[in-house]
Write a structure and sequence with these properties.
The chain is an alpha+beta fold. The chain is about 40% helix and about 30% strand. The chain contains seven helices and twelve strands. A hairpin with a 6-residue loop joins β2 and β3. It is elongated and about 85 Å long.
Length: about 270
């Protein structure tokens, strides 16, 4: 028998780790001194320990390893677990490759502008939400306020008359591409807390969960289209493409010079 300290040195595993493996029923000592509680191991256990370490190196958790070391595990089950682990590793590698591509794109942007970017793009998943929306057609881009403002007012009035509540900031949902400035198709959208019947003018429906690339514009509202340009440039540089109507979320608008607007473009990998 080999003392736990010697076994630890022989296997290059810490005594703390061996004790933990004992608690996990992964590697039990062959003997425990009844008086001192000192653990003893056998040289025959080195092969089992090596298998534990090898499986851990492949990324398996100790709980998974414990299952894999059972005598009734079949070859097919082992193959299945290894295949699943391979897919997880491949997914992590793909994620890291995408992160590397974003870093390279940021470096190129800094090199071109020779300054810190004004906008930081974040890819996130927007949860599904129930909304009340008034859809309008806007003849020209300079008429956006005179069409959207009454559309928002109509949506809010309908929601309140029905006894419902808004659950977040209102936003415009643009069905026309960002580079279209005539006959723009847009919705004035209000998130709500409960299903409503809707009317011919105010539609109530659920917006599905969507992956978006987003930037936040703070400051003068007249300059917020710079956020659109930065976002579209980032989407193109990072291997994404637009995947549906985009959103302008009006978070704060105390004055035209003091606003906070989040711009979200639904995206998917090319």
């Amino acid at each position: 028998m080999i003392k736990i300290g010697d076994f630890a040195r022989l296997s290059q595993v810490s005594v703390v780790t061996l004790r933990y493996y004992d608690e996990m029923d992964l590697l039990k000592p062959v003997k425990v001194d009844s008086c001192t509680g000192y653990r003893f191991y056998s040289s025959d256990q080195l092969s089992r320990l090596n298998r534990i370490l090898a499986l851990k190196d492949l990324g398996f958790s100790l709980e998974q390893i414990k299952l894999m070391l059972t005598d009734d595990l079949t070859v097919e089950q082992l193959r299945s677990m290894l295949t699943m682990q391979r897919k997880e590793v491949e997914k992590r590698l793909a994620d890291e490759q995408e992160r590397l591509a974003r870093i390279e794109a940021r470096l190129r942007q800094i090199a071109l502008e020779d300054k810190m970017p004004k906008y930081d793009v974040v890819v996130k998943t927007v949860p599904a939400m129930l909304v009340a929306a008034r859809r309008v057609s806007i003849p020209t881009n300079d008429q956006v306020p005179q069409y959207l403002r009454p559309a928002f007012t109509e949506a809010y009035e309908y929601v309140r008359k029905q006894g419902a509540k808004d659950t977040g900031p209102c936003f415009a949902l643009w069905h026309s591409p960002a580079d279209v400035y005539e006959n723009e198709d847009a919705e004035a959208v209000v998130p709500i807390d409960r299903p409503l019947k809707g009317t011919e003018r105010v539609n109530v429906y659920e917006l599905p969960s969507t992956q978006v690339a987003a930037v936040v514009h703070q400051g003068n509202f007249e300059e917020f289209t710079q956020g659109h340009a930065a976002l579209l440039e980032w989407i193109d540089a990072n291997g994404y493409q637009n995947a549906g109507p985009y959103r302008e979320i009006y978070i704060k608008c105390q004055t035209m010079s003091d606003t906070t607007t989040e711009i979200q473009f639904p995206v998917e990998k090319v």
